[in-house]
Specification:
The protein folds into 2 domains: 110 residues, Homing Intron 3 (I-Ppo) Encoded Endonuclease, Chain A (Alpha-Beta Complex), CATH 3.90.75; 71 residues, GCC-box Binding Domain (2-Layer Sandwich), CATH 3.30.730. 30% of the residues lie in helices and 25% in strands. The protein has 5 helices and 12 strands. The strands form 5 sheets. Strands 5-6-7 form a 3-stranded antiparallel β-sheet. It has a 3-stranded antiparallel β-sheet with strand order 10-11-12, with helices on one face. Strands 1-2 form a two-stranded antiparallel ribbon. The protein is globular, with a radius of gyration of 20 Å.
Length: 197
């Protein structure tokens, strides 16, 4: 969620409620599909635009699923799903853990700060040698694992296979992301408990 000039956009706080979303859609956590509960009418109600049970939304240019709900406003489907399941809008950014922007299974979504979400972006995924960010092959055919934190690269080791290196990178990134989420929540709680005089 970045504007054209590289300025981060604040998470959207919309007026759509969880109850309203649950009245419009059904959600399958295993497939990640959001479906319409009822027929959607168009042309002043003269014909059916979308039948009940059909997948809601379309893929935008960035690869995310988008849906129009509550009038003419467009919402990212992953944010609607978060509201549907948790009953509240996400407090930060929704990260697609596997990097696939249209994979909206609940197990693939997490509410994270921008710094964590940015690590999962395309620029870190496009490695010349591997599909896993932080895994590269050296001249000898061994696989190097590394992570980036606060502008510094940390070497995690050399491995015989790409899969071994990827497992280590994913495990370390998960631990660091969980630690950063905890730190973020503690800071939010601290700010909420401050007394202003």
């Amino acid at each position: 969620m970045v504007l054209r000039k590289g300025i981060p956009r604040a998470p959207i706080k919309a007026d759509l409620t969880a109850e309203h979303v649950r009245s419009l859609f059904t959600y399958d956590e295993t497939t990640g599909l959001l479906r319409w509960k009822e027929d959607r009418l168009a042309g002043r109600g003269r014909f059916v635009k979308v039948a009940a049970g059909e997948a809601a939304g379309w893929r935008n240019r960035s690869g995310y699923m988008v849906v129009t709900a509550g009038g003419r406003r467009q919402y990212m489907v992953h944010r609607i799903i978060w509201l549907f399941v948790h009953g509240k809008w996400p407090s930060n950014f929704i990260d697609h853990i596997n990097g696939k922007r249209d994979d909206n299974r609940l197990s693939n979504l997490r509410d994270v700060p921008l710094s964590v979400n940015s690590r999962n972006s395309d620029r870190f995924r496009n490695s010349r040698w591997s599909n896993t960010p932080g895994v590269t092959e050296d001249e000898a055919g061994r696989w190097r694992a590394h992570v980036w934190r606060n502008g510094k690269q940390y070497h995690l080791g050399m491995f015989a296979t790409r899969e071994e290196a990827a497992r280590v990178v994913i495990a370390v990134n998960t631990l660091l992301a969980d630690e950063e989420q905890i730190r973020c929540r503690l800071n939010q709680a601290e700010r909420a408990n401050r007394v202003h005089i």
